[in-house]
């Protein structure tokens, strides 16, 4: 092969590999961030599995105590004889509340676990594309190194300009990777917060339903209104728990994310809703629902602000990344020009041996 053809082939291969690197520069830092996200999900699922085991054991214990007290006719009779029926009713209400609280805690945790599992499955699917792009990037780097090894024999002291431009391009690439990693993390936080906001909207809608059923209950809605009210409150509590889990995960992705204020969703009681139901208990519980709605609305406001701030941070990093990416391309172009000169000198026998 003639010297001219060798120079042309080397230059063409160099350009092709640099183009591949430019197209896939995003992949290694994006994959690292995505692996971090997947690891965080797996860790949350493991912790939740342990928590669910504890909740299942507690629910079983509360069920036994609830059934034991509910079915204790002798105790009921003894309290009746002693004139302490109010004490029995209070105890029965306590046992019933503790059991249904345990049942609801377990259900909420399992719903949150199902949500995390769905997100993990989606993340694993997206990981495959990033792994392919990262592999392409790594192979291009390997081929580029092999290209120069085949042309330059060891160090190239005869080409200080090429060495300087190589160091400059390497530094530019490192700056790009570091900033890309930060941008990916902030973008991940935005996506998580967006999903959390969806849960928050669902919780607000469910609380609105609960308040509506509660008003209906105060005006004689009966057992059906009680049950619909309780169902809506249960949905709201589950969605709030999932929202808080996602916000906590976004905090681990970005130091700029803050936690939400506490939200205590009112819980009904079968004993008070059915056995001791009256307008006074209905009004008292309606007030609790309104208090929960107020707490939820405050949390929704904080979350909306968090989403806006995270988007602004992400947009700022993306603008900065555009500048850094342009500087990287310029440094690579300068390096390519320096190497083309070096190719001509080495392959032409004017600046060293092959």
How would you describe the overall organization of this protein?
The structure is a single chain. With 354 residues, the protein is mostly helical. The chain has one domain (3-347). The protein is 87% helix and 0% strand. The protein has 8 helices and no strands. Helix 2 (27-70) packs antiparallel against helix 4 (85-151), helix 5 packs antiparallel against helix 6 and helix 5 packs antiparallel against helix 8 (279-347). The longest helix is centred in the last third of the chain and has 69 residues, at 279-347.
Runs with pLDDT <50, length 5+?
Answer: 77-85, 350-354
Oligomer: single chain
Q: What structural class should be given to the helix and strand makeup?
A: mainly alpha
The tally of strands reads: 0
Give average pLDDT, whole number.
81
Q: Which shape, going by the Cα principal axes?
A: elongated
Q: State the order of secondary-structure elements, H for helix, E for strand.
A: HHHHHHHH
Instruction: State which percent range the strand residues make up.
Output: under 5%
Report, as a whole number of angstroms, the end-to-end distance.
Answer: 14 Å
Task: Report the C-alpha radius of gyration, rounded.
Answer: 32 Å
What is the number of helical segments per DSSP (H or I, 4+ residues)?
8
Largest sheet: none
* Tally of separate domains: 1
Helix content: over 70%
What is the topological layout?
Elements: H1 3-24, H2 27-70, H3 73-81, H4 85-151, H5 160-218, H6 222-253, H7 270-275, H8 279-347
Helix pairs in contact: 1-4, 1-8, 2-4, 2-5, 4-6, 5-6, 5-8
């Amino acid at each position: 092969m003639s010297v001219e053809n060798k120079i042309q082939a080397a230059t063409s291969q160099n350009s092709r590999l640099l183009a591949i690197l430019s197209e896939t520069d995003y992949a290694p830092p994006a994959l690292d961030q995505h692996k971090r996200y997947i690891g965080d999900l797996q860790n949350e699922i493991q912790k939740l599995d342990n928590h669910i085991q504890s909740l299942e054991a507690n629910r079983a214990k509360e069920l036994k105590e609830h059934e034991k007290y509910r079915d204790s006719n002798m105790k009921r009779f003894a309290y009746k004889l002693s004139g302490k029926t109010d004490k029995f009713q209070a105890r029965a209400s306590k046992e019933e509340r503790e059991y249904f609280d345990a049942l609801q805690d377990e259900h909420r945790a399992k719903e949150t676990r199902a949500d995390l599992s769905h997100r993990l499955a989606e993340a694993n699917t997206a990981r495959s594309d990033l792994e392919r792009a990262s592999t392409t990037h790594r192979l291009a780097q390997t081929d580029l190194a092999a290209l120069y090894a085949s042309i330059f024999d060891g160090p190239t002291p005869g080409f200080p300009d090429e060495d300087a431009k190589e160091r400059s391009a390497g530094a530019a690439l490192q700056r790009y990777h570091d900033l890309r990693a930060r941008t990916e993390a902030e973008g991940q936080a935005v996506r998580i917060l967006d999903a959390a906001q969806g849960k928050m909207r669902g919780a607000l809608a469910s609380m609105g339903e609960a308040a509506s059923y509660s008003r209906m209950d105060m005006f004689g809605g009966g057992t059906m209104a009680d049950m619909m009210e309780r169902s809506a409150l249960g949905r709201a509590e589950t969605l709030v728990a999932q929202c808080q889990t996602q916000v906590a995960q976004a905090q681990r992705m970005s130091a700029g994310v803050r936690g939400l204020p506490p939200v205590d969703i009112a819980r009904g009681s079968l004993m008070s809703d059915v056995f001791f139901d009256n307008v006074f208990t209905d009004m008292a519980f309606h007030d609790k629902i309104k208090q929960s709605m107020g707490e939820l609305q405050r949390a929704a406001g904080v979350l909306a602000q968090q989403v806006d701030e995270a988007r602004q941070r992400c947009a700022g990093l993306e603008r900065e990344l555009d500048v850094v990416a342009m500087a990287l391309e310029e440094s690579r172009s300068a390096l390519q020009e320096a190497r083309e000169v070096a190719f001509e000198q080495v392959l032409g026998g004017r600046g060293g041996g092959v």
